[in-house]
Design a protein that fits this description.
Elements (H helix, E strand, L loop, with lengths): L20 H12 L5 H21 L8 H12 L4 H17 L4 H4 L1 H14 L11 H10 L4 H16 L3 H5 L6 E3 L5 E5 L11 E5 L1 H14 L24 H12 L4 H4 L6 H12 L4 H8 L5 H6 L1 H5 L3 H8 L4
Antiparallel strand pairs: 1-2, 2-3
Helix pairs in contact: 1-2, 2-4, 3-4, 3-6, 7-11, 8-10, 8-13
């Protein structure tokens, strides 16, 4: 990406190389607008603000930073934040410094050693969202009531599971994106995604039961065009669109209505249907290339992580135990 010339400080007079930090960060955020997904832009704004506040408290120059400053920031935040959060901070700082032509700053030994210290102390493992597998999906579906809101929730959950959509993809769907095939199932156009930032578009499959649920929602809501999934207010008033943060709230609410323990309901996230569908595919013995295609993954890393407990049951040790009659 490129930024406005004023953000490049390499040729500025010494007296002008440290403008007010707020101005510097504001210039960067304005220049970056539209170059990343909305979630990445939000993270950039939040992470850089946290970093700027930390620097201000210590009298450190924030941008451009020395490797030692970023390393000290990593050490400090590693004491109170999860490793994944600290890695996201570093990614945001890397984006900012790369925009200034200083990408080696974050890759420097002091920063990398600080990350290694954090990982040795706290590990790399991240908590995983509860997988909304088929039995759990069915329980949520059956517990939903007869309100317009319930029709919307059933359709949303069904699409999220079949198409393995991220929450931002789910709320960005439009009515024309769903095409019903002659045999009753459907194809869904995902116009833009985390791995398709330039909007080439990808087509995914949804089942005939999912198509029926979506049609029931649209017909009852009187929606013929525009956004596919929308907010529903008091009295059944249909809004314009859903915000991505509402997806996990909907799933949690459905789980609580189904009487599930808070440990299950609270673990649901906007990724849960995607995780659960992947786990169901692994359990069913579906081959990895087909799973990767369904989830639009470029590597096996996430599938292996989502299905690690199921895959462990197919390990050499597990197969040997079954051969020995210990299964």
């Amino acid at each position: 990406m490129f930024l406005e010339p004023p953000f490049n400080t390499s040729e500025a007079p010494a007296a002008d190389r440290e403008p007010a930090l707020e101005e510097q960060l504001g210039r960067f955020v304005r220049a970056a607008r539209g170059a990343f997904s909305s979630s990445t832009e939000r993270a950039l704004r939040s992470d850089l603000a946290i970093y700027a506040e930390w620097c201000a408290e210590r009298g450190e120059r924030a941008l451009p930073a020395t490797p030692e400053t970023i390393a000290a920031f990593v050490d400090a935040k590693a004491e109170m934040r999860a490793p994944a959060t600290v890695r996201r901070y570093v990614t945001s700082l890397a984006i900012a410094h790369r925009a200034m032509g200083l990408e080696k700053t974050v890759k420097s030994p002091p920063v990398q050693l600080a990350l290694k210290r954090m990982h040795r102390k706290k590990g790399r493992r991240q908590d995983q969202a509860t997988g909304l597998t088929w039995p759990l999906r069915q329980r949520l579906m059956e517990a939903a009531g007869d309100r317009l809101l319930d029709d919307r929730n059933r359709a949303l959950l069904a699409v999220a599971y079949d198409a393995m959509l991220r929450r931002a993809e789910l709320v960005s769907l439009q009515v024309p994106d769903l095409l019903e095939e002659l045999q009753g199932d459907g194809s869904l156009l995902v116009r833009r995604s985390k791995t398709d930032c330039e909007g080439r578009g990808e087509v995914v499959w949804v089942g005939r039961d999912t198509v029926r649920l979506v049609r029931a929602w649209l017909d009852r809501a009187g929606i013929a065009e525009g956004m596919l999934f929308r907010s529903v207010g008091k009295g059944g008033r249909v809004g314009e669109r859903l915000h991505p943060c509402q997806v996990p709230r909907i799933l949690k609410a459905m789980a609580r209505e189904a009487g599930l323990p808070e440990g299950v309901a609270g673990g649901l996230s906007g990724h849960s249907a995607r995780v659960g569908a992947a786990q169901d595919m692994v359990a069913a013995g579906i081959e990895l290339p087909a799973i990767l295609h369904a989830g639009r993954w470029k590597s096996t890393a996430m599938v292996n992580r989502y299905g690690e407990r199921l895959l462990a049951k197919r390990s050499g040790a597990a197969q040997l135990a079954r051969m020995q009659g210990r299964g």
